[in-house]
């Protein structure tokens, strides 16, 4: 090779490098289906067909789930068969996949979502077609955002801000004409929303000139800082869905050949993939205007309104029921909320106030995670979901973790070049067992992700409607943490001699508690820091979290990911979250210093019952106790202990009084112990395994004013002591079997105990 191929910015273009030739390898000779399949691989991977070896895997050549979906669309278009994503994961080489395609073509088998071939119950996905006359319906995803806007007009959580720094000589008039041409080309960019007979409909406005104002901030003391502040204001301006336009654009001048192009779109007409289409076509149109020619863009076979009408016609009847049945079964019994510890109590109504923190995975770590994915037959996205599941399980104390993840929703090749809101959200559910190796969790998540992809057409809003989770305005339904690995195609762009660089836009709104967004740096922007790794951000709800908490979470994600990649057979419970520096800092923070310890002794803030009460106030929904498959939150533990403590005070328990506690290891034992402390008494442990003579001696010697016992011990203890015996009910009933216990306060009783009193 005479030299390395370079990108537009002078960097090595890795995708253009020839594959290494292995001496003694097989000569690529293909015919029939395998030859055509190689051509389809080459098309979606951006390679030459003769560079694809028969035994090389789709994923080792740069493929991922999104490109796999594009390949499946081309297989459908070419042979009229429905290839599943699972088939490609199980047969990732040309020589392995070609027989699967041949068998499906011949009708010998069907591509199956439970094995290697097509699920016989899954019909061929029909092609979208141009819509007929009449009102244009909303897609299911649009309908959800429209309803949310009706409930909360002016909410900016679904604003999509984008900013590009343009270095070089900019022709503002040419850029305005290019933008006008782009809006004329895509109906979605000139759509507003009205009602027709009480139903929302899309209204496509006629093409017209697009306003592109120029703001000159070059005279500011710090032009970039001033521009960033202006971008934040633009991103936070609400849209009017009925009046439009739902695209705002302006150019900010920083210097003679230094500008920012600021775009804000409403999510109801766009998504992440659409932004790539937007930028590519805007660049092509700008180049064409400068050259005085028509842009070399293919005609669009469909518009977004065609897709919306097709989706409503397709997703009904048996197909709708098939998808619903899967999700009902998969998500049955899922917890209502992930009980992450927060820096502040969760407000009753989610405000969507948010902020963003940069987040990246270095190149070395990313390569290690990709290698793990190849070894395990998974994808990088699956590995990241597994790592995040472990992290969330460790932070929350829960073992049933739900994470939302977006899918492009463009399963037809005809949809790939459109701008519009196609993306859907899938819920991936992981059972995290601390005793099993990470590799076992990853294997289960692989199966879950493939099955979810096979049922991805059910819109998220219909899933929520079908499952009807407990209505709670304090958090998003079904999941509160999202992971998005953005790999929508962008490609190299010529932009009239301008150098493009993404500019950050301050996020002030967020849809979820946490959103992890990562992407590989596109080839045309590879002179940025983090080249070769993953770069992105963590969006977080500022009502719940401080920036320091998110920084710690990000660091632990990186450390945990490195541990998983290095030793995937390690037990999940043994995987480290902290590096040596953080561990040392935490240990140092736990070391008792005399003055605080003395204050704790004086005030009682170090008492067990006080600490549990403080934990219940900070994170009430976090799991406090687990026993035999059941769990008890801090809020429930605190409430039960307080009710029991009030009942004990009524029965004469107070400072310097003793209370017998006869329980097996259970929720009741912990509730009873805390209640004794809250009432001000001292507890006397009574082992139910002891013989009657031993228990009778202990009861006579301790002379308790009250004995707490599980129901199995009540009659026995009543025969051994004159003290009253109070039966502790089993979880989740009130802590005593007495009806009045239900009405007792759930706040701690007032007692006059001191650190010197017996406990």
TrEMBL record:
GO terms for biological process: amino acid activation for nonribosomal peptide biosynthetic process; enterobactin biosynthetic process. Residues 750-759 have a biased composition (Low complexity). GO terms for molecular function: 2,3-dihydroxybenzoate-serine ligase activity; phosphopantetheine binding. SUPFAM superfamilies: Acetyl-CoA synthetase-like, ACP-like, CoA-dependent acyltransferases. Keywords: Phosphopantetheine, Phosphoprotein. Gene3D superfamilies: 3.40.50.980, ACP-like, Chloramphenicol acetyltransferase-like domain, Nonribosomal peptide synthetase, condensation domain. Its cofactor is pantetheine 4'-phosphate. GO terms for cellular component: cytosol; enterobactin synthetase complex. SMART domains: PKS_PP, PKS_PP_betabranch. InterPro entries: ACP-like_sf, AMP-dep_synth/lig_dom, CAT-like_dom_sf, Condensation_dom, PKS_PP-bd, PP-bd_ACP, Ppantetheine_attach_site. Pfam families: AMP-binding (PF00501), Condensation (PF00668), PP-binding (PF00550). Residues 723-759 are annotated as: Disordered. Residues 28-105 form the Carrier domain. PANTHER family: FATTY ACID SYNTHASE (PTHR45527:SF1), NONRIBOSOMAL PEPTIDE SYNTHETASE (PTHR45527). This is Non-ribosomal peptide synthetase. It comes from Gemmobacter lutimaris.
